[in-house]
Amino acid sequence: MNWNAIAYQKQHSYVWQHGESLLELLNAQPDEDITDLGCGTGQLTEKIAATGAKVIGLDSDRAMIAQAQANYPHIPFQVADATNFELKTPADAIFSNAVLHWVTNAEAAASQIAKSLKPGGRFVAEFGGHGNVKTILNVLSKVTGKALQPWYFPTISEYSTLLESNGLEVVYAMLFDRPTPLGKTGLAGWLAMFGQRFFPELPEQRWQEITEAVEEEAQSLYQADQWVADYRRIRVVAIKPLSKNPTV
Ligand code: BEZ
């Protein structure tokens, strides 16, 4: 996927700002080997590094990795895909914020994550959960006449079952609404960054018309003088058991 890493970093900082509370759940310790899966421009990777953990940031997008490396030259970053990344040594923890909804082959990602953890290692993740951006998606489908569900937004039971079938024990799972203010560029900026890629055939002028029509129809998301996306997050912590049979 090709991203405009500069625009992402400048205009969509809410992505990693919201991820900061996930770092508390990660609770990184000095010298732990931690992988930040889908690190984007590296802001949360840097916070993990600041704990003294040995972190590597992985992202499938070259532009994101180039920007992350420019931002934080002291941290290793690497282009790698969530469905087939390989680590030099298994990780104490794999952390992932606001990325796994882009990985529609969730089975391959879960399998790779499980394989890449040490026994006793943990997977700590947050991404879009069931019902995420429902209003935006419904309105976009209505306006374009194209039924759109390009992301993976699982329920707790779907995702827990997936992790469990890959040998991980889910010790925490939560699905919650997190209305998210979209900053200065508002809904138009969100659509341009995250939605326009699914309509590559449309001329810019037609995309502008669609954006205006979506804004018109999605007025319920305009609250107290700003656009607020109807985000719904799934958060999970899962452990790779020390023994293959966790009851033993
Ligand atoms: C999200 O963070 O929930 C999200 C961002 C972009 C597209 C879809 C979902």
TrEMBL record:
Transmembrane segments: none annotated. Keywords: Methyltransferase, Transferase. CDD domains: AdoMet_MTases. SUPFAM superfamilies: S-adenosyl-L-methionine-dependent methyltransferases. GO terms for molecular function: S-adenosylmethionine-dependent methyltransferase activity. Residues 36-124 form the Methyltransferase type domain. One of its GO terms (biological process) is methylation. It comes from the Bacteria. This is SAM-dependent methyltransferase. The lineage of its organism: Bacteria, Bacillati, Cyanobacteriota, Cyanophyceae, Leptolyngbyales.
